[in-house]
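User: Can you recover a sequence for this backbone? Please restate the input before giving your answer.

Assistant: Of course. Working from this structure:
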């Protein structure tokens, strides 16, 4: 039987499906209620509302919303770590030692030296390879792009990699918006062609729609993806999302910031296929023990949400641009890992 969530501050329960019927109690906002039956307003003398029968009585459907349930492939949740931001960093002993110490599944970038480190650093329970490229202000066709990334992508694939995120934040100018594609519709058509090229060369690849920038305005990713998604939905095994919080002084609020983003995104796009939060962080400077508390609490929440495949922490180490360096997102060079490991999972 379906369930609904009460959306008004209070909702009267009626003995009959009629607003003038005697009250049988109240539900409060956020209550999740099992629906036994539904009666359409056109069959009722009152005629103002559709009515839902619960185990306590009748409620007006207008003041509820359906509880949508995940119905896709069952997945086991895991936290994961984003690979170093540049492939040459893999060659540094301190980076390798850090990644061993983290001991989390890795999101790799399909570029340069990165495939050399697959065998030693991937985890059998989960991996993700982001197919990496930089448009650099030039127009790339799907065919040209595939030729540019094909060798590195297939190096991962031939070693056993199967999960591939296709590109990164395509709603930003640095990643192709405005010259490779002009809007989400053009991107979706472009991505569909790329996906078909990849599947022809790597038929067992599981393709994931890329995480978009959730920047200002925050909802710009929805306008973009609403237009792109219909072109690629049948080609995607799953979908990725980027979710951040700038809250630096309240653990519960920071966790809820991200959970609200994830639940809203999943209801919109990912109730029938796995969702990976492929970049996530407290993306402003904050004490290491605070960030560790947020991340551990976030893991506990996401582990109880069906369909959430992984949470990828951004980032192990990178050479951040000056305007972002002060946000201290990199784990290396901080006390974050020791604080994170200290907290029981």
């Amino acid at each position: 039987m379906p369930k609904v969530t009460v959306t008004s501050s209070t909702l009267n329960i009626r003995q009959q499906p009629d607003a003038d019927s005697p009250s049988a109690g109240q539900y409060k906002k956020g209550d999740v209620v099992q629906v036994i039956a539904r009666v359409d307003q056109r069959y009722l003398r009152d005629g103002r509302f559709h009515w839902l029968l619960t185990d306590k009585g009748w409620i007006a459907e207008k003041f509820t919303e359906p509880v949508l349930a995940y119905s896709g492939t069952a997945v086991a949740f895991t936290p994961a770590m984003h690979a170093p931001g540049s492939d040459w960093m893999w060659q540094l002993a301190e980076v390798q030692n850090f990644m061993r110490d983290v001991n989390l599944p890795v999101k790799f970038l399909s570029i340069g030296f990165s495939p050399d480190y697959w065998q030693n650093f991937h985890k059998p329970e989960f991996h993700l390879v982001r197919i990496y490229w930089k448009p650099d202000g030039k127009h790339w066709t799907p065919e040209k792009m595939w030729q540019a990334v094909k060798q590195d992508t297939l190096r991962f694939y031939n070693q056993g990699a199967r999960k591939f995120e296709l590109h990164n934040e395509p709603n930003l100018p640095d990643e192709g918006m405005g010259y490779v594609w002009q809007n989400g519709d053009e991107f979706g058509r472009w991505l569909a062609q790329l996906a078909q090229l990849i599947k022809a060369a790597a038929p067992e690849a599981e393709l994931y729609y890329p995480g978009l920038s959730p920047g200002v305005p925050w909802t710009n990713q929805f306008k973009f993806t609403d237009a792109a998604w219909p072109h690629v939905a049948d080609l995607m095994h799953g979908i990725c999302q980027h979710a951040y919080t700038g809250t630096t002084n309240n653990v519960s609020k920071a966790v809820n910031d991200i959970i609200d983003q994830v639940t809203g995104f999943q209801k919109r796009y990912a109730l029938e296929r796995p969702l990976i939060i492929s970049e996530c962080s407290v993306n402003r400077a904050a004490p290491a023990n605070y960030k560790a508390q947020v991340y551990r609490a976030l893991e506990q929440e996401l582990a109880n949400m069906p369909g959430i495949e992984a949470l990828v922490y951004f980032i192990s180490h990178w050479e951040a641009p000056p305007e972002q360096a002060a946000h201290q997102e990199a784990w290396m060079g901080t006390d974050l890992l020791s604080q994170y490991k200290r907290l029981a999972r």
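That completes the design. Residues 184 and 217 are 16 Å apart (CA to CA).
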